[in-house]
Design brief:
298 residues; Rossmann fold; two-stranded parallel sheet; 10 helices; 8 strands; binds zinc ion
C-alpha cells in the first residue's frame, strides 16, 4: 500500500510538470525557452502561455551588462528548445554558452528589425534598451511569437492568438504613457538616472534623458558627466533624480546630497520586479516607472 502511494505521488509530481525546488532543469515536456533577461522572458510567458516553460538567465535586480554566468546557465541553455536574446551587444556573455550548446540551437534576437539609437558617450555602440519604447516591445513580441511558432508549429495558432491579445495590451500601455507624461510641466520633463537606459523611452514619450553612466553600467563615470549633471540639476531646477533596481545608487545619492535634489524613486531599468507582484511583468514595471516619474516631477 505504502509503495503504491509513493508511486502515485511520484506520478503526480511528474505529470504536473513542476520544476523541483533544488534544480532549475525543466521536467515538463513543454517547449523550454531561455531568455537572457527577465524583460524578455516575461514577454515569452505572455506569448507562450501554458505551452512554454520560460526561464531567464538574469534574475530579478541583476545587471545584465556585467553579468557573470552561473555554472547552471550553460546546462539550462543546452536543455532548451529556443533561446531569446536582446541583441545590440547587451549580453556578450551568452555567446560562449550558445556555442557550447552546439549547433542547431534556435537563437532569436528579440530586437531584430529595430534600428538602434547609438551611444553618444561611447563609440557609437547600439543602445540595447529598446524595450522602453513600447512600439519596439511589440516588435520583440512579434519576433518571439515567430520563433515559438517555428520550434513548435503545432501550436502556432495559439501563439498568434496570444500575440494578438498582447499587442492590444501594449497599444493600451503606449497610449496610457503618452497621456501620463504630459501631466509633467514641459520644462520638467527631464529624466536623470544612474545609467542611460531610458533614451528610447525619452525619444518615444517626449522626455529629455540624462544618465550618469553611458548605455552600459560597465563604463566608468566621467568627471565631466558628473559635473554636467550637477549643472543641469541646478540650472533647470530639477526636483527629482531616479536610481535603478539593477544599478548601484551611490553616485546619484551623492549628487542628491550635493545639490539637494530628491531621489524620486527606484526605477526598473534592465530587470523587472519580483514574480507575483504587479512589477513582476514588463507592462507592470513600465507602469510603475511612469507613475514614479510623473508623481515625482509633476
Ligand atoms: Zn542597461
Amino acid at each position: 500500500m505504502k509503495i503504491k502511494l509513493v508511486l502515485i505521488f511520484c506520478a503526480v509530481i511528474f505529470l504536473s510538470g513542476c520544476k523541483t525546488e533544488k534544480s532549475d532543469e525543466p521536467v515538463s515536456g513543454k517547449i523550454v525557452a531561455v531568455s537572457s533577461i527577465n524583460i524578455i522572458s516575461d514577454i515569452v510567458k505572455n506569448i507562450g502561455g501554458d505551452k512554454v516553460e520560460s526561464y531567464s538567465i538574469c534574475g530579478v535586480g541583476v545587471d545584465p551588462h556585467s553579468y557573470h554566468p552561473k555554472p547552471s546557465d550553460p546546462r539550462l541553455i543546452s536543455k532548451s528548445n529556443i533561446v531569446f536574446i536582446n541583441g545590440f551587444n547587451l549580453e556578450h556573455w551568452i555567446e560562449e554558452m550558445i556555442e557550447g550548446a552546439g549547433s542547431g540551437k534556435k537563437i532569436i534576437t528579440a530586437s531584430e528589425g529595430i534600428t538602434p539609437i547609438t551611444d553618444d558617450k561611447g563609440f557609437g555602440d547600439p543602445d540595447p534598451h529598446a524595450w522602453f519604447d513600447v512600439k519596439y516591445a511589440k516588435i520583440y513580441a512579434q519576433n518571439i511569437a515567430k520563433g515559438l511558432s517555428e520550434v513548435d508549429p503545432t501550436n502556432a495558432v495559439y501563439y498568434n492568438e496570444n500575440l494578438k491579445k498582447y499587442l492590444t495590451e501594449l497599444d493600451n500601455l503606449d497610449n496610457w504613457i503618452k497621456d501620463e507624461i504630459v501631466k509633467i510641466p514641459e520644462d520638467q520633463r527631464i529624466l536623470i538616472t544612474s545609467h542611460d537606459a531610458f533614451r528610447y523611452f525619452g525619444k518615444a514619450y517626449g522626455m529629455e534623458v540624462n544618465g550618469l553612466q553611458g548605455i552600459s553600467t560597465e563604463a566608468k563615470v566621467r568627471t565631466e558627466d558628473y559635473k554636467n549633471i550637477i549643472d543641469l540639476i541646478k540650472s533647470r531646477k530639477i526636483k527629482s533624480v531616479f536610481i535603478e533596481t539593477s544599478v548601484n545608487p551611490k553616485l546619484l545619492e551623492q549628487i542628491s546630497g550635493e545639490t539637494g535634489v530628491v531621489v524620486g524613486g527606484t526605477l526598473y531599468s534592465d530587470s523587472i520586479g519580483n514574480e507575483g507582484t504587479p512589477e513582476g511583468s514588463y507592462t507592470g514595471a513600465v507602469k510603475f516607472n511612469v507613475n514614479t516619474i510623473v508623481n515625482s516631477l509633476k
